[in-house]
Input
Amino acid sequence: MIDLHSHILWAVDDGPATVSGSLEMARDAVADGITAVAATPHVRDDFPTAPDAMERAVEALRERLRAEDVPLDVHRGGEIALDRLPLLRADDLRRFGLAGNPACLLVETPYVGWPAWLPSRVLDLAATGVTPVLAHPERNREVQAAPERLAPLVDGGTLVQITAASLDGRLGRRTEQCARTLLDLGLAHLLASDGHERYIRAVGMSRAAAAVGDESLARWLTEEIPAAIVSGAALPPRPVGAGLRA
Output
């Protein structure tokens, strides 16, 4: 499996404070069957991470993983707040490209509210040739109330990432129901941990993949789509007839 949303870098945002915390997360990921992660620190008002800081932290973690013989690939990335997009230079956005792919960008869904400008901000990004990957919308109350509101964004080229802990029930029944509805509607494309520390949304990708209830769909969400993003290849189509168990 490949985890394309992880706050695994230490002392960068609200992820682990120390290198030992990052190493714990990395070992947990490997034990869970994950072969690669994208380090996606927050880029927002409270954590205005610069691309230089992200790149240095990624290289430092890679060095420690090699020294500790932890077989986990770490890719670059960032989780960009939608209101920060207009403030970042084009080169900065390219450097924050998801898994090092400048044609994809992980953007953060607000937890509260659905600003009127949100759809146009996302679709404007898609219009520039950059695929927006909308992070964890199932945790937004407005999306929970009306999951179909994501359909125009997906139709416009947006990919949707669901948090593993949402799908397997760790974040509550309402969030789980929304995640499952998005899958049923064909409005979700990949699963990721959004892990911050061992005890804050612990990795749990294999548990979420099992909760999908369809092996081909789980593989598409956790392996095929993420691998295509990493390599810059064309996205594989969703498996025909794939769906959730009742």
About this structure: The longest strand covers residues 2-6. The radius of gyration is 17 Å. The chain has a mean pLDDT of 95. DSSP finds ten helices and nine strands in the chain.
